[in-house]
TrEMBL record:
Protein name listed in UniProt: GWxTD domain-containing protein
Residues in GWxTD domain copies: 308-419
Provenance organism: Candidatus Kryptonium thompsonii
Source species, domain of life: Bacteria
């Protein structure tokens, strides 16, 4: 590895910011042995996000990636891997919407792990991305119980005999979809999963597989017919692949639900996994007409700014979908459905009013008010019922205690100015889901 790549690796330590390369990472876990599982980590990068280098009549993309798999319980690194990805093409007009897709495979013991992947554009080192999430890896060690692997969502699955192909798996070419996003341009969801201990775990000579699609409220979607299969008990391990046509589903969050049962209906195993639909041409099941009228005349830059300020109420999946939208019309339709799902015109008006109020009340020299900790709490929970303000003292740095009497029976938020420059950060709260530190006063003591 040359000095340049060592420099990039050092730079990666500071790359936990909003990404620009469209890096998506997902995983699946399958059985390997009684002590280890087979962990697959697959990722994609959006070609159009890279800086192209034109050379020898072709446009070239070059990226450096690094993967760290950390054992959380032992606080140790299990896997550390770095590699380059390069590709080229003759015409940039066909690159929009295309992804680089790859898969990595490892044998790992059971445990809780943190997966961190980073990507850097080698033609523009200011262009980078990172993804981090936690994974529980089980071991499929039960011998008398039917067990099911992860559900893997894919772009395509086809029969194959090419064992040298990186996507080859159990006589199939399985191209994973790390985004789990379907609908526009990807109308068919392909799925893959494995069953283990069939001979000992199924009592009868046959078993049933039921596959259905659920909406975000965990109700079966009537537009997608539930699929039911009967399988004979022949092999101890079984591979199942299939498709679901999702081109008529409206934009939203859905789940693929798989249930394995005996012939008498008793459940043997089940698994469920989330996926996302973006179908701008399919009318949502909620009325968006009034909110869409509110958005008419707003330009694309302003729509982007509005959605960025909705970060406190948007999901990671919605942010991923929005980042891939092209054009003002698509973004306007998306935001129309986004606000409609949360209460429509009045909700949007109140939320954006709180954003502006936060900008007035809490802005610092470097940070707009809505991006501060006090701004976030103000926007999400509204104005506090009471504020206790404590300025500088001989022993303590400035702090505030906000009281909300009607929130979860009464809660507080403690903000402290640890730097002395008016930048109050949240140190402690009694609200469930917020940061909790009963010893917050020690952080403000003058030293």
């Amino acid at each position: 590895m040359n000095l340049l790549l060592f420099t990039f690796i050092g730079l990666f330590a500071n790359l936990f910011v909003e990404g620009r390369l469209g890096l998506n990472v997902d995983y699946s876990v399958f059985r390997h042995s009684e002590r280890e599982s087979y962990l697959e980590i697959f990722y994609s990068l959006q070609k159009s996000k890279f800086l192209y280098e034109f050379k020898n009549g072709r446009y070239n993309i070059s990226a450096y990636l690094r993967l760290d798999v950390i054992n959380i319980e032992k606080d140790s690194t299990l896997i550390r891997k770095g590699w380059k990805v390069e590709t080229s093409f003759e015409d940039t007009s066909k690159v929009a919407g295309e992804d680089i897709v790859d898969v990595l495979r490892f044998y790992v013991p059971s445990g809780k792990y943190r997966i961190i992947m980073r990507a850097l554009d080698l033609h523009n080192t200011q262009n980078y991305d990172s993804v981090s999430f936690d994974v529980n890896v089980p071991v499929f060690d039960s011998k008398d119980k039917l067990m099911i692997s992860s559900l893997e969502f894919c772009y395509s699955i086809s029969k194959s005999t090419d064992t040298t192909d990186v996507f080859y798996k159990n006589s199939y070419r399985v191209v994973p979809n790390p985004t789990a996003l379907y609908g526009l341009n990807v109308p068919v969801l392909y799925y893959y999963f494995e069953l283990y201990n069939v001979l000992s775990g199924v009592k009868g000579e046959q078993f049933h597989i039921n596959i259905s699609v659920l909406d975000n409220n965990q109700n079966k979607v009537p537009d997608i017919r539930e699929r039911k299969f009967v399988r004979n008990k022949v092999y101890n391990s079984v591979v199942e692949v299939g498709t679901v046509n999702v081109n008529m589903l409206p934009t939203g969050i859905y789940y693929l639900d798989v249930v394995i049962s005996e012939v008498d209906g008793s459940i043997l195993a089940e698994n469920r996994r989330k996926f996302f639909i973006y179908n701008p041409s399919v009318a949502p099941r909620i009325d968006t007409s009034s909110i869409t009228a509110e958005l008419l005349g707003i330009d694309e830059k302003s729509l982007d700014d509005e959605f960025s300020k909705a970060v406190y109420i948007s999901t990671q999946e919605e942010a991923s979908i929005y980042s891939q939208l092209k054009g003002v019309d698509a973004k306007r339709r998306f935001l129309g459905a986004f606000w409609a799902r949360r209460g429509g015109v009045e909700f949007r008006k109140k939320y954006l009013e709180r954003v502006e109020q936060a900008n007035v009340k809490f802005a610092t020299r470097l940070t707009p008010g809505w991006r501060t900790d006090r701004g976030r709490v103000y926007i999400i929970y509204g104005p506090p019922d009471e504020v206790e303000r404590y300025p500088y003292s001989e022993n303590m740095k400035p702090y505030e205690i906000w009281h909300y009497y009607n929130l979860q029976g009464g809660v507080i938020f403690v903000f402290g100015d640890r730097t002395g420059f008016g930048s109050y950060e949240l140190l402690h709260s009694t609200l469930v889901g917020e940061i909790k530190n009963e010893e917050w006063m020690y952080l403000l003591m003058q030293r």
